[in-house]
Structures are given as C-alpha cells and as structure tokens.
Amino acid sequence: MSFKKLLVSFLLLLGSHLINAQETKQKPVTIEVNLNVEKGSAKPIWAWFGYDEPNYTYMKDGKKLLTEISQLSKIPVYVRAHSMLVTGDGVAALKWGSTNVYTEDKKGNPVYDWTVVDKIFDTYIERGMRPIAQIGFMPEALSCKPQPYRHFWKPGDNYNDIYTGWAYPPNDYKKFAELVFQWVKHSIERYGKEEVETWYWELWNEPNIGYWKGTTEEYIKLYDYSADAVKRALPTAKIGGPEVTGPNWDVSAKFFKTFLDHVVGGKNYVTGKTGSPLDFITFHAKGNPKVVDGIVRMDMGTQLRDIDKGFEIVASYPALKNLPIIIGESDPEGCAACSEDLHPQNAYRNGTMYSAYTAASFARKHELADARGVNLLGAVTWAFEFEDQPWFRGFRDLTTNGVDKPVLNVFRMFGMMDGNRVEVKQDLAYNFEKLKKESVRGERDINAFATKNVEEAAIMVWNYHDDNKIVAPSPVNLQLNGLSAKRVQVHHYRIDQEHSNAYEVWKKMGSPQKPTEEQIAVLESAGQLQTLTSPRWMNVENGQIQLNFALPAQGVSLLKIIW
Questions:
Q1: Close Cβ partners of 348 (under 8 Å, ≥ 6 residues apart)
Q2: pLDDT of 458 higher than 70
Q3: Are 526 and 518 in contact (CB under 8 A)?
Q4: Which residue from 503, 376, 321, 450 is spatially nearest to 33, judged by alpha carbons?
Q5: Is Transit peptide given among the entry's keywords (predicted)?
C-alpha cells in the first residue's frame, strides 16, 4: 500500500475515533434537591432480602453475609426463605432446601422436629433480623402426590423439573393446619410472644405458577386453614399472602383478585363466616433482560408495570387499600440460580449494572406507591449467596465466596438514608411514569433519591441505562437547597469501575478460580463501600451548596451532608 493510501486510511480511522468520542461525550445534568419540600417517610423498603435455599443460612458464607446485611441497616432486616417445611436431610442444593420438620410414624401420627428450622431462625434472631416465615412447602407425608419428591436441578436443566411432590396440596388440610399451629406455638416458646408478634407469616410462593400444583380454590382453602391456625396460636400474629408473581399478566391478576375477593367477602373454609384474616398483602414483580446486538439490555419498565398493576389491584379494594404491601420478590428477572455462563442475559449481575439498576428502581417504587395511594412496606431483593460455587459465576447474589459484589454496596448506601424523602425536581430525562412506559432506551437515566433527618441529608445519584454500553462519564451539577446551617461536611461514596467493585479487581488479577489468601484479602477490601474523595467542609450560601462531579455510566454516588 502506498504512503498516500496509508495516510488516507489513518485519517479515516482517526476521524471515526473522533466521531465516536463526540458521540459518547455526555451532556451535563443538573439535579436540584430541595430539603424544604418533604415527600413522605423514607421507609426502609430495601431492608428485605430472600432466597430459595434455606440451608445456606447457617453455612459459612451465609452467616457472614447475614452479619453484613444486619450491620448495614439501622433497623431490623427481614428475611424470607423457601422450603421451610420441606422433607429432607437439610443438605443445601440449588433451588432446593429442606428441614424435615414433619414426618409421620407407622400409624400416621405426626412427628415434629424443629431442629433445622430453629437453626435457621436462630441465625436471624442472633443478628437482630426477623423472619418472613413462609408456610411451605408441602411435607412429603402430607402431599397428595408425593412422588417424585426430591429434585436435583442444576443450571441448564428444564426449570419446570423443580416442581415435584412438595408443590401439591395436602392430603389432609387439618393435619397441615395442625403443623402450622404447632410451628407458631413452638416459635413463641423459643423466642417469646413479643418477638413473634414482629414476624410476618405467609402462605406459599407464587401459587399462580408451578410452585402450586393445586387450583386457585385449593390455595384459598389452604390459606383459610393456615391463617386460622396462626391466629389460634397467636391472635396478634400477622398473616398475609398470596405471593402471586406478575400481577400485570392477565392470569396472575385473575388469581390475585380471586384471592382478595375471598378475603373480603368469601365463605371461610374453616369458620364458615365471611372473609379471611389478612394483615398484609404480597406479590412479586420482575424485569426481563435480553441480549441485543451482543450486549445485555435490561427492562426496568416491565418490572415497574408489574409493581404498578399490583398497587392498582390493591387500591381497588377500599377495605384493603391501607394494608401494608410487601413485594415478596422484586428483581431485574426471575431465576437467581440461572448462571451467567449458561444464560448470557444475566451478565449484568457481577458488575455495576446491577447496582445502578437497583438504585434507580427502588427510588421509583416509592413514587409508584405514592401515585396509587397505597402503603408500601417492603420490597424483597431475592438475592443471597451460593455456597462453594465458582468465583463470580453470575448468579443473582450479593456475594461470591464471601466477597461482596457491587450491588451490596447500594444497600450500604440505602442504610445511610433515613428520615423523610425530599423533593428532587423532575425535569430530568425520566420520571417514574415515563420509565414505567418506556424503560430506559433513549437518554440515560441520571437522577437522584434524597432524604433528610434532623442533622443530615443524603442524596443517592445514579447514571443508568438499560443497555450496558461503555460511554463517557456524565458531568453532574448537584444543587442542594434548603440548608439552614452555615457550614456542612460532605462525604462522597461511589460505586463504579474503580470503586467498591471487587469484580473489576478480580478480573485484573486474571480472574483466578483459586485465589490465594492474599488475593482474597484484597478482594474482600475491594468489595466494601469506598469514598470517592476525603470528607470536606463547605460553606453554605443562601441556604445552598453546589457539588460538581463526573458520574460514570452505571455508576452510583451517595452524597452525605452533615451539619
């Protein structure tokens, strides 16, 4: 090739790089926060977690993670786990757990063994946590179709293979109710009445899909028997349901409404009276990521539409509208144990895309509840840990082999926010209505969630997009109005590629599957929440301060303002 042609090729290549650089250069974004305009209580709706495999609770990394979760919150964290009544040897496996709480002798008499259940709940209580006590699933001796019972699912297998004998209705509703009664009674004896009164008892999980192999009416019948048993053992206990998933699906909405219709005006299967006790309402909401043109594309809009539909359904029942709502599972998609190596759409889980999605979506849950006038109490993040799995395999978890992922640091940030929510001016690219309708497919969602109490304010700022593309950082001008102090101290915490991110550090190590003790120590340190800069003092002028910083794509900042 001649020198002239080489020069032309070089200039074309240089021009294309300049064009790409111009295309990725982000415009400045101004975010205004007004501390004088309060939007309601900053309920810690984030302080709720759950997982499929209850036996991980008391294993090495499970106990370590539960300790960390309990320490990041100023209030008790609630924990929800499946399979609390499943028959088995108590050995953990993916999508499986067991406690062997109920068996029968040769004459068909109940044999209760609380050993494993106590081991699980003791782990919570010792850390100041509280259970969402899930009544389920069906013990083998009570299942109307017990065989096959134990499954051996692994990533890549047919998901429907997990729905075995534990998913069926009981062969004797009264025996099942007696099991529930004895469980609540035993809990009171072990932990005390005042403690158990703080728990939430619920029946089953996602009974509108494979987790329940009975009919809607059979679920309602089991609910009546279970609720009656709970209230007989402890009249002040809280019982709720139905934990349906996907309220925006027609079939799920029908199940949800049929259940609520029964609670309000149906004939109770146990008492014969009208209605059933219901102290809180539960449903699930998930997103739907895909791989598009070789990159992960999230779908927050799908999750928010599910949440909004659930709120709409509850709000349509005047007698129930003010009851607490717990979104029993609230996640970017549905299968925590479906690993990235076999499901490429789940490649968001190890890095900062998961943390940015979490920050942006939790802020909008508050706004959706405000708009529908309902009482959102909690949104359960269905992510925990998977013991003895490959490092950063890409499960939907908070840690890997005891090392924290970036997403856990978002919850550390939330743990530093309390008091009341305050106004963030909504003249930015997305408000909750637009995001619910369109998801984040155009401009980037750069926005904030802000709180204040008597002596400090906290502003969480995120730079999120559904497409996980690498683009230039966005300049942010944060204007904080309504300060009464003359001088404030500013702390700036950050999650991005360089901060609070053990995954990026692990990759720079060469992605070792057998890291040394020294490497593990480095990873554990990298997984903690880190500051972007040292704390600094600022003078307040006319009740205002301005903070200017660059926020990387899929990054999250927390500005803590102390006076």
A1: 289, 296, 298, 332, 354, 357, 468
A2: yes
A3: no
A4: 450
A5: no
Segment 481-511, tens digit of pLDDT:
999 999 999 999 999 999 999 999 999 999 9
Q: What single-letter DSSP state applies at residue 562?
A: E
CATH topology of domain 44-414: TIM Barrel (3.20.20)
Active-site residue set: 206
Cα distance between residue 209 and residue 207, in whole Å: 5
What is the CB-side half-sphere exposure of residue 552 using CA atoms within 13 A? Answer: 15
Asked whether the predicted pLDDT for residue 404 surpasses 70, the reply is yes
Please say whether the dihedral angle defined by the alpha carbons of residues 148, 149, 152 and 154, taken in this order, is positive or negative.
positive
What are the residue boundaries of the structural domains of the chain, listed by start?
17-39+419-562, 44-414
Residue 351 has a CB neighbour count (10 Å cut-off) of: 23
CA 416 to chain centroid, in Å, comes to: 18
Could you give the strand order of the β-sheet that contains 238-245, starting from the edge strand earlier in sequence? Answer: 375-379, 324-331, 280-286, 238-245, 200-203, 130-135, 78-81, 48-51, 381-382
Taking a C-beta distance cutoff of 8 angstroms, is the pair 397, 383 a contact? Answer: yes
Pairing of strands 420-424, 324-331: unpaired
Paired residues of 476 in beta bridges: 29, 549
Of 468, 485, 461, the closest CA to residue 551 belongs to 461
Q: Give me the helices (H) in 101-198, please.
A: 115-126, 173-191, 193-196
Return the CATH number of the domain spanning residue range 17-39+419-562: 2.60.40.1500
Residue 143: is its pLDDT beyond 80? Answer: yes
In one-letter notation, the amino acid at residue 559 is L
Mean pLDDT of 148-160: 94
Closest C-alpha to 436, from 503, 364, 386: 364
Digit-coded pLDDT (tens) for 212-223: 999 999 999 999
Question: What three-state secondary structure class fits 102?
Answer: strand
pLDDT tens digits along 39-98: 999 999 999 999 999 999 999 999 999 999 999 999 999 999 999 999 999 999 999 999
Mean pLDDT, the chain, as a whole number? 95
Q: CA 265: distance to chain centroid?
A: 32
